[in-house]
Every structure is written in C-alpha cells, then in structure tokens.
Amino acid sequence: MDLDAFGELLTPRGQRALAEAAELAGTDPVAAATRLRRTYDAALTSAALTQAALRERAAAKFGADAAVMYFTPHGLEQSTRREVADHRARRMGGGRVIDACCGVGGDLLALARAGCAVDAVDLDPLTVAVASANADALGLADRVRVRVGDAALVRPEEYDALFADPARRSGKGRTFDPMAYSPPWPVVLDLVARAPRACLKVAPGIPYEFIPEGAEAEWVSYKGEVKEATIWTGSRTGPARRATLLPGGHTLAATGAQAAVGPVGRYVYEPDGAAIRAHLVGEVAEMIGGRLPDPMIAYITADEPRHTPWASGYEVDEVMPFSLKKLRAALRERRIGNVTIKKRASAIDIERLRADLRLSGENSVVIILTRILDKPSVIICNPIPPA
Length: 387
Prior knowledge:
Elements (H helix, E strand, L loop, with lengths): L2 H7 L2 H12 L5 H9 L4 H21 L10 H6 L3 H11 L2 E5 L6 H8 L2 E7 L2 H13 L6 E5 L12 E4 L4 E2 L2 E2 L10 H10 L3 E5 L13 E7 L2 E9 L7 E6 L3 E4 L13 E5 L1 H5 L3 H8 L11 E3 L8 E11 L2 H10 L2 E8 L6 H8 L5 E10 L2 E9 L4
Parallel strand pairs: 1-2, 1-4, 2-3, 4-7, 8-10, 15-16
Antiparallel strand pairs: 5-6, 7-9, 8-9, 10-11, 12-13, 12-14, 14-17, 16-17
Helix pairs in contact: 1-4, 2-4, 3-4, 6-7
C-alpha cells in the first residue's frame, strides 16, 4: 500500500471498499479480490483487503478501536497494546509532549487520551498519514499534530516531555542491538539529555549498560507475558528498577533484597518475567519467604504455600537428577499422559524430550528442567490451586 492508495482509502469510495473488504474477511483471498475488482481498481482493492486484514490482527492489541483504525504491517508489529500504552501515558501525565518516532500512532493516541498535547514526527510519509488518520478516527485530532520529520532534528527542550519508540526492525528483521535502532541509541540519548522529562520504549532484553545513569527502567508484563521495557528520566522517575503487572497494576520496586540459597522445599515458584528482567527475584523471594535452589537461576522454593501475582506456584512431588530413563519411569508410575514442560538453564530440547518420554496415561503434571548447584535436575510438581 502506497501513500496514494491510502489517500484513496480515506475517500467515501475508499470507505465503501473497506467496508466490503471487512465483510469478506475470512473468505478465500482470491475470491475476495475478484469480487472487489468488479467495482474497484486494483490499487484500491489491494489497499482495502490489506487494511481489513490488518484490522483483524490489530484487535488483539487495540480492542474495539482496531475496527476504525488504520495500520501498516510494520507499524502494527511495533505498536504497543493499548493497556500498556495507557499505563505509560498515565505515568507521563499531562503537558506538551513530542513523540519523536510516532509510527502508526498507538502511543500518541494514548498520550492524547491522558490529557497530553502531542506533536509527533516520523520519517515515512505513509506512516504519518496513517497516524493522522487514526487521530481523526478516534476523535483526538484536536490534541495531536503529526508531520513528516527526522527524530534527530526535534527540539525536546521546547516541550514538557519527550516520548520515543525507536524502530527495532531492519531489512534483516528484528534487531536487539540498540545501536541498530532507528534512530540509533546515541541520537536517542542526545534527545533524552535535552528533554526535561523523557520516556523511552525499548525491547525487554535491552542490556543494562545501555540504560542511562540516573534513569528508572520499568519492565511491563501483560497477563504473564513481558511486553516491553520503558526507560524514564527526569522529575517523574522512581527507583532504578521496577516491574509492573498489567492489567492488575501491581508494581514492585528494587530494594536490594538478596535471596538466601537452600534446598528445594515443598513448593517451587516461577517469578513473573518482568520481575526476572528487572532483577527483582530477591524481592519476590522475600515476599513469599523463599530461597533459591541455585543462586544463579530464577526459581524460588519455600516450605509454605503463598499466593502472589508475582509468581506462579507449584507443589513439589519429586526432585531428581536429570535422567531420561528415570524421568520416563517416574511419569509412567504416575500414569502421566500430559505434561507441561518448563525449563531454565537447561539445554534440553523440549519437543524432543516430549517425544522421548512416550507418555501414556490419564494424569497431568508439570516438570521443571533446571540446574541445582551446577547439577542438571528435574522437578516434578503440580500447580498450587487458586486461593
């Protein structure tokens, strides 16, 4: 879809084509294209079908808003799901914000809803047109101004805050190196240094050495899946490291807690990924009165059952050194036909192991493959029932 085709999509005729394309969602794509081509030219047909498909995919991130929004494939891939963007926008507060890499506009929409006046730039004219159309579609155009521009040339010192979500994809696919972001990390840090306050959306696996001194790094998990890291600078920053769980809004900050090391007890806990990324395993262990079976691995054990949003808990049935033969025998004895396999610090291929276990039976169990004091081990366990 090019800029001209997208412009045509916004006309009354284009809207009719888009509505018809939405009705054809899920049907044979060749048949759908053939039907639309009876009324519309090839470019508009392609744009309408592409947009209808993207809206279907976008519903997981944007909910009901996806039905009236516009997307590019790359823009949808990088977009934050609405619940996470809304959380970040609430932390940002009001004021005038410059969005230096706006993409299709998911974050600028959240900022506008939170009361911010947003100026936004992006290098790609099509992406800018899409972001502007999204602000119009959701009734936020009076709070948003979107233009084509280079993030490196914005003047964050003229605003109350900077928001930046540098692109993390290249022609070779997703990149995990901040130096390969667009704009690259040194440019982003220069913008941050000149901004009264700043909020940077980055990949959850960002190396700690790239986090600016004095900044707060927040890892956000949504329904148990780590979605992103956010770096905060300026007057609204808090502790150096924080984890947040959505949709519940639970927050855990670094206190410097250090977990003791000890043998596996009756229960084992797997901390949420946001707490692990934020190096808050010690804080979670303290919360549940637990210890670490291995000082380098993020599993916690305890002697009493505890319910916390910060960890999934399992009651331990058996702990053994890893041996395929012994594990297979143990599962056969328990008549296990279905197994959930978790692993950390283990090189074992899960699917290969599942096949090798040759499961047969009516019962289910969880097995955890890990290392305990440098010894490959397996923990056979079952989820703790809900409180």
